[in-house]
Amino acid sequence: MEIHLAHTQGFCAGVASAIEVVNRALAKYGTPLYVRHHIVHNTAVIKDFEDQGVVFIEELSEVPEGGRVIFSAHGVSPTIYEEAKSRQLIYIDATCPLVMKVHREATSFSAKNIQTVLIGHRGHQELVGTSGYVSPDLLHVVETEEDIDRLELDTTIPTGYLTQTTLSVTDTARLIEKLKDKFPGIVGPPKSDICFATQNRQDAVTELANQCDVIIICGSRHSSNSNRLKETAEKTGNPSYLIDSVEEFDPEWIRGKEKVGISSGASVPEYIVQTLVSAITAIYPDTTVYRKDSVEKDIRFTVPKV
Ligand code: SF4
After folding, report:
1. Which residue among 8, 186, 256, 271 is least crowded, i.e. fewest CB within 10 A of its CB?
2. Could you give the percent of the chain with pLDDT greater than 70?
3. pTM to 2 decimals?
């Protein structure tokens, strides 16, 4: 048996920074410490913080007046900052800088009266936050090709598109092509909104899936980028599985296989992958594990002041 680990996987710079914010805030201020929305979409990370006394909330009204609250890596809409200020909350913003970049683009589009087609998953925290930077009368959210078929825009004003950062690179390219066919004048962001971490992890999984017989992705069900990794692997025709923890691993998936590929989403701690590797090597003691250097090994974001 061979195990091949995707060269670039696990924590991205934005997730590492957001988690560090919570760790520093815990060390400096102790509990109660509130975090609006799960700081990142990973069950193990959230449980670990909850065990340390962090309280995850969805509404700022759940934070006592004057309390301390951290905003998650997915970003928040401008109304959340206003609400925090009006309730005299002390807030620390762990929004990923690459999500903030999309917020600035959205603000700029609306300031220029550009109607904005926002491509992403309805209800996802990042999309909810970014939507708040677009004037409501200029906002059109699309998720599928059918949404674009149904989309009717005002042809008397300019149109632009923006995207969520964690989408499938290939699926989004198809949606953008369809938008361009239907609305030839549509403009996009200067540089893709899909972040480098998403792109790198999908590229690494494609490479992995082309050399392995089966792919296992570590990541939580509600993690957008982890789900996209599973779908990316499936597109190569290989069986592909998503597991939140090693307890969900079924040895039947790898029976008779020679090369098992493993990757993990941008919010997944390294130990989860290592636990899976240990589980497989316990069944197949002669397993050899291969891993190349991450293309992101030198990328770090500045941690916001705590
Ligand atoms: S996946 Fe991309 S946008 Fe999201 S936290 Fe990581 S670097 Fe930032």
Report:
1. 256
2. 100
3. 0.95
